[in-house]
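Notebook B, p. 112. Complex prediction, attempt 2.
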Amino acid sequence: MRRMTARPGNAHQARLLKLLRDGGPNSRAQLGDQVDLSRSKLAVEVDRLLETGLVVADGLAASRGGRRSHNVRLNPELRFLGVDIGATSVDVAVTNAELETLGHLNQPMDVREGPVAVFEQVLAMAAKLRASGLAEGFDGAGIGVPGPVRFPEGIPVAPPIMPGWDGFPVREALSQELGCPVMVDNDVNLMALGEQHAGVARTVADFLCVKIGTGIGCGIVVGGEVYRGTTGSAGDIGHIQAVPDGRPCACGNRGCLEAHFSGAALARDATEAAQQGLSAELASRLETNGGLTAVDVAAAAAAGDATALELIREGGNRTGQVIAGLVSFFNPGLVVIGGGVTGLGHTLLAAIRTQVYRQSLPLATGNLPIVLGELGPTAGVIGAARLISDHLFSPA
Amino acid sequence: MRRMTARPGNAHQARLLKLLRDGGPNSRAQLGDQVDLSRSKLAVEVDRLLETGLVVADGLAASRGGRRSHNVRLNPELRFLGVDIGATSVDVAVTNAELETLGHLNQPMDVREGPVAVFEQVLAMAAKLRASGLAEGFDGAGIGVPGPVRFPEGIPVAPPIMPGWDGFPVREALSQELGCPVMVDNDVNLMALGEQHAGVARTVADFLCVKIGTGIGCGIVVGGEVYRGTTGSAGDIGHIQAVPDGRPCACGNRGCLEAHFSGAALARDATEAAQQGLSAELASRLETNGGLTAVDVAAAAAAGDATALELIREGGNRTGQVIAGLVSFFNPGLVVIGGGVTGLGHTLLAAIRTQVYRQSLPLATGNLPIVLGELGPTAGVIGAARLISDHLFSPA
DNA sequence: GCTGCTTTGTCCTGTGAGTGGAAAAAGTGG
DNA sequence: CCACTTTTTCCACTCACAGGACAAAGCAGC
């Protein structure tokens, strides 16, 4: 199949495409109920979309009491590629134009190997998905990287945990390789987009999405739009001071949140505890696996290990303290917690909630849900697909 | 003069009004250069604005090499009222439609006397300004109050420092009394608007405006628009924890920024220091005035008093620490410091800068000016006038 | 003061977006 | 088969707006 290259010709068409993306197949009459256009105008725009091939006819709709309406839907052959590059693993997924995941691969990988090696692997994974018959090609791709991005150009800037990526033209390079439009963003922003599109944040205009993985970051959504800050580093909360004169951090300061709680810090603290003989559970795991990760701590906690629980609780307290500050400042309508350590589950959530509800003022917390993300590891790739579809479904 | 009641009939007219407000008298030709409209269309819209009386002819412009163009300007008889209610004083100013301050009054006053008493005084001040010939009436008024506001309705909600105001229909009541449209907002947001309109933030889309007065608050501007949060309490940074297990705060927690540094806290600490004999300078001022305020501390610091300087420096450090966190999170293009304690000047600013530049990452601070507000005590009233003019100069 | 050139303002017509009514087409339930 | 509903198409009409033609006004040089 030839890849689609069409873009909506005006704001009405863009609106219709997004309705079809978010609401699935729809009758012309139903579409008419949702947009404020006359029937005649709507018919014209739908016809034009059909001509471009972005939208196809899809049989007759159920009757609403009279003549049955003709259904339309986004072309089911459209394919988006969602890529979520984490610090220690990569997720690649294929979606249709309605952003339903058709296939999903996950592989361990170290970002520090640099963009060339990483993208070789990403392209191989994409090829594998294509080979399995899920796609003949891609109409667009969204890429998430674990660091700040100069968004308009799609270029990582000064990423602390991924040296070698600074200034690498990710968007340009991948667009070339994949032969389709590409958008690049911070992985945390994509998680926020994912939860907004298909997760817990569907109905909230202003929310925060805190991702606790190898590092800690925060997606900020203002009025339904991701806010990226002046230089693309908004939401970089890992280096907010959580403990005065606390642990030294890679950034050169002391007491950064990330130095006290994150996947990496948790693994380090757990190993330390195991070596000091504070926890038999952790020690045995350390021996078996030759190392500890956040997953081990989660398992130990689930098994009732007091040390593991305490580590989680303390980390949650630190995180909650920082989030409490952000809540006072930003007054969001929702806080989503996600990322690798969500396995720590309700122990973590409870600690965070306790801090926030205690420290922030009632007006800000009164009606503020603090919840775990709904999409888990797929939030990133769905967000990535959403990113590129938002781009492609906007007037050229 | 009969008050104007007209509003722009469409987005073009709104655009033109704002150009005339921000750029002063302008020729039709110049306006044409700034908006993307054909000359014919422009002429029609300008004529309609002339008909409404919002805009008047203003002679001939200088020649640009050919026929001289006709100038137009906002009706010079339009008057806006800007009211900035602080915790301990009230500012009232009259502006023309170009938001130039024509008259300004300031009076001490305690908000805790409640809305009825306060507005009695505000109305008296407005009447005084009117009586001095500056205005025959008002076409709109903007009101700033020192606490969170449910913005669409113009009603204070759960304001900690102004009991008795909760739920008082400020907008409705004042609109009745003044006989003109009224908009109400948090005083910090208005300061941000003021600095954006006529101060240091004219060219910045995303910035923070930290006001340190009796309390501490922060105006947030995202993409040129004030962000107010889900319940109107965004920017309420006074109760972010600055010192773990620090001083008890009126809100019930410990270590809130406001408990450690603010006009009130500074006065308290200075008094304590004077009583303990730590500073002769402060002690003598305490004796003379029967009490100390932030102004005394500023004066003592200017006179070189070590204790006063240390108080300011410590407060600046605390504030800087909190701001550093906000900078990491929000990645603004500018931070403005304002409010009553700006008298503390560069000692304070230096302390804040040190903290922020040390604690936040280079990508966020690399090109981040941290400056004092340019407008001082007039920022609030100018912001108030700007608020109501933005409202009135938008399509009905 | 006259002449050629530039800019500004006005008038007028053409175009394309969009609305809303009428009528035809396609169903449903009795 | 009939009365009624919904969907779709068709068409005439309105309105916003662009852009060209032309007149008015001003400048600079002679």
